[in-house]
Amino acid sequence: MSEELAYAIITPYSLHKSRTGGIIARLISRSGVELVAARMFAPSAELVSEYAEQVVSPDDPQEKRIQELIREYVLRNLGPEPKSQRRRRVMMLLFKGEDAVRKLRAVIGNFSPHRRGGETIRDTYGDLIIDENDNVHYFEPAVLAAPTPAEAKTKLLIWAKYSDTDGGVLEDVIQYGPHEVPERTLVLLKPDNFKFPSGRPGNMIDFFSRTGLFIVGIKVHRMSVAQAMEFYAPVRETLRNAVKERVAVKAKAALERELEIKVPEAEQRQLGEMLGPLYAESQFENIVRFMSGINPRECDPSKLAEPGTEKCIALIYEGVNAVAKIRSVLGPTDPSKAPPGSIRREFGANIMVNAAHASDSPENARREMRIVDVGENLFRRTVEEFYGTA
């Protein structure tokens, strides 16, 4: 069976109610297909209209009444707000794999007035409330997805067409009070969360949702060696100054043990000055290899800027005091020193394999967002390359 592209659209209401993490956790851990791209959209009326025209389909296993409810929902809830014309946030997730459309749709689920289970995303996060007279009182699909590969292609090409104008790192989608000054900060869900399909990435997004901040950008990112070296350049300098004393103590102990000599204090300091930079550089290379999958010392210079082999998810959060709020939920660098209930205490293993990164200042956030380039349109590139329309 050949590979397919499949999509899941997380609705504005699901985003607003911070259900994003739970939905992503199920999609990644239960579908058996790979998350290959993600992009935030603030759909225009034109995008919504084109997409809505394709919603009702004879190939959809849901009854036509449900499909018409979804079409009405799309027209009413995905486009700009009627009064303010402020655009709503939508998250598009793109998956690839064998039989991807059916597998993803099975996790998302279909609506039925008589459903009794609780296995699918729509069972948990969607709502269809019908009264005794068969009138629909409330409808929320939670997630939108195509029923067939052919329809996935049609709809993905529509979203790809608008992905530059309506997608990327969103602007002016959140309303603030007159004295509120929002910040933006970057979060990276690190490669250790993607060694095998699991709910970890979504579960961590659930943790971050406690901040009350808003996701305005998302990207599935494979960090190049050049990006990793630039991104972690401040850590490189910190390591050079921080490890000298530790290296000196370890070197002294090793020499005294192996050579049975006494190393005086002055020589111990010299050992730190001499060996500290070498050890710091080795640690820095380990960080670059962890994030990119490639040892920088072994990387062909012509390939420094090529995407690495390791995957992470980059997120931009927006809101008042965003940097401090995210850092508080994340916890300190060393998971063993992180407080209970923090992400690094729950998901981290050690100082390097510590689940996630978050910017430590608004200035660093701007620098890091520039390096990672969350607005890069990998969504459109993936769609067009897969369908041969590039």
Task: Give the topology, please.
Elements lengths: L2 E8 L1 H5 L3 H12 L2 E8 L3 H9 L10 H14 L12 E9 L1 H9 L12 H5 L1 E4 L5 E5 L2 E2 L4 H13 L20 E8 L10 H9 L5 E8 L3 H7 L1 H10 L1 H16 L5 H28 L19 E9 L1 H9 L12 H5 L8 E3 L3 H11 L5 H10 L3
Antiparallel strand pairs: 1-3, 1-6, 2-3, 4-5, 7-9, 7-10, 8-9
Helix pairs in contact: 2-5, 2-8, 3-4, 7-16, 10-12, 11-12
CATH class of the largest domain: Alpha Beta
- Describe the oligomeric state of these chains in a short phrase: single chain
Number of helices: 16
Tell me roughly what share of residues is in helical segments. Answer: 40-55%
| Strand fraction | 15-25%
H and E order: EHHEHHEHHEEEHEHEHHHHEHHEHH
How many β strands by DSSP? Answer: 10
Shape: elongated
In this structure, how is the largest beta sheet organized?
A: 4 strands, antiparallel
Tell me the name of the CATH homologous superfamily of the largest domain: Nucleoside diphosphate kinase-like domain
Strand order of the largest sheet: 2-3-1-6
